[in-house]
Design goal:
Helix content is about 80%, strand content about 0%. It is globular and about 60 Å long. By secondary structure, it is mostly helical. It contains 23 helices and no strands.
């Protein structure tokens, strides 16, 4: 596209609001995993299978993400990215507030668990349009040569949400007795999340519309049926975005957010130590994210994806073995290495998936590719990892899962085209 025909960048304020918005999504979903052992006692009675049931509820709710992504993707591609992001966070706010007000297993029995899972499904549906909408908005508003760096800010902000989740969880567990925690203390993190989501809705109401969507409106190229448009024109891009997101999802959700439950279930650390360790892991992700985004602007998305997929194939088995050994120092080292790899991958994966699509139908394409992969390789894998450990006793099973996915998607990365504009321009000039 000639420079004069490219849509202008959006204001820094709108970009900042969009990037910060992902804090809410990751706060809520990582909170559920970090708090899984507590929720298993509060809502499912604390029996032998309660943790597995709690993680199963997470998986079921995550399967709602693709449905929400398609619905909100239609809104984003037909009405505008801004409208999509406002509606999704409004639904998230309501779901989090309702969760904080739920009765517990001791009050109404098994119905408490079913109500929790139902609200998780509502949350999963609403979150479906969140991350893909934000990444598309940042990509479309950023200068071409800084797309990797700017889109990676969504990943960094997401991990701020994860850091908030683990920090609030750790403080809640540390400051309350077990009796108070199960009676009322578990509600505190969810009330905090509802307030956070409400503040994001207020901030989003000030955002500009994406200049790319405004270009489509002016040119009359807005897809009438985005779902059909994406399936007709972007099937290969959907497949590539699925592969990119598959590895990103499993490295994040098994390599970071599942780790506290893993350490607690194998007896390496208690709940408090596991949550503080995860706080350190979240800080590592925030640190590596912008550097990886900038790196991908310099050398290209393809090369970075290949390097990180090789690391994901080689390191996780050893790191889970290290964490299961029982010492705090080894657990910390294993968790930090996994967090660094997963954080770096999330940074480049965000922009690489969005760049697979042109502006028309981009959000729906991401819904069909990236969000479907996230549902399968993010929502199901913590449950599967726990199930494998309980059935086999093999504590390295989570690491093996990550390695298998990394080896499976590596051929896609080796054969895909480079999408970083700065890298493409450099190659052309040489």
């Amino acid at each position: 596209m000639p420079l004069s025909d490219r849509p202008p960048s959006v204001s820094r304020a709108s970009m900042a609001v969009a990037a910060f918005s992902t804090v809410v999504e990751w706060y809520d979903f990582t909170l559920y995993l970090y708090f899984a052992t507590v929720l298993s006692r509060v809502f499912f009675g604390g029996g032998a299978q309660s943790l597995l049931i709690t993680l199963g509820g997470f998986a079921i709710a995550y399967l709602m993400r693709p449905f929400g992504a398609v619905v909100f993707g239609h809104i984003g591609d037909r009405i505008g990215r801004r409208h999509m992001l406002l509606r999704s966070v409004a639904m998230m706010t309501a779901a989090m507030l309702a969760t904080a007000l739920l009765p517990t297993h001791s009050q109404i029995g098994a119905a408490a668990g079913w109500l929790l899972i139902l609200l998780r499904c509502v949350m999963g549906f609403s979150v479906g349009g969140e991350y893909t909408g934000v990444v598309a908005y940042l990509l479309e508003g950023a200068p071409e040569r800084r797309r990797g760096l700017i889109a990676s800010s969504a990943s960094a902000a997401s991990e701020v949400g994860g850091l908030l989740a683990v920090g609030v969880s750790a403080l809640t567990v540390a400051c309350l007795s077990e009796a108070d925690l199960q009676a009322w203390g578990w509600r505190i993190p969810f009330f905090f999340g509802a307030a956070l989501a409400g503040s994001v809705w207020i901030a989003r109401s000030t955002m500009q519309e994406s200049p790319e969507f405004e270009r489509q409106q002016a040119a009359g190229t807005v897809p009438e049926v985005p779902f059909r448009h994406a399936l007709t024109n972007h099937r290969a891009a959907i497949a590539r975005s699925f592969a990119i997101s598959a590895l990103g999802s499993i490295t994040y959700y098994v390599g970071i957010t599942y780790v506290p439950a893993f350490l607690t279930s194998v007896g390496s650390l208690g709940e408090r130590d596991s949550l503080w360790l995860s706080t350190a892991a979240a800080v590592i992700v925030i640190v590596v994210t912008p550097f990886t985004g900038l790196w991908s602007d310099r050398i290209g998305r393809k090369r970075v994806l290949i390097v990180l997929s090789l690391l994901s194939a080689l390191l996780p088995i050893a790191m889970f073995s290290l964490m299961a050994s029982g010492t705090r120092l080894q657990a910390l080292l294993g968790a930090l290495v996994l967090a660094a790899v997963a954080g770096a991958y999330s940074a480049v994966g965000a922009v690489a998936t969005a760049e697979q699509f042109p502006g028309e139908g981009r959000v729906t394409g991401l819904a069909l590719g990236a969000t479907m992969a996230t549902a399968l390789f993010g929502g199901l894998t913590p449950w599967l990892a726990q199930w494998l450990i309980e059935r086999t006793g093999w504590t390295m099973a989570p690491g093996a899962m990550i390695a298998l996915v990394a080896l499976g998607v590596l051929p896609v990365f080796l054969t895909m085209r480079e999408t970083a504009p700065a890298r493409a321009d450099f190659s052309g000039a040489s």
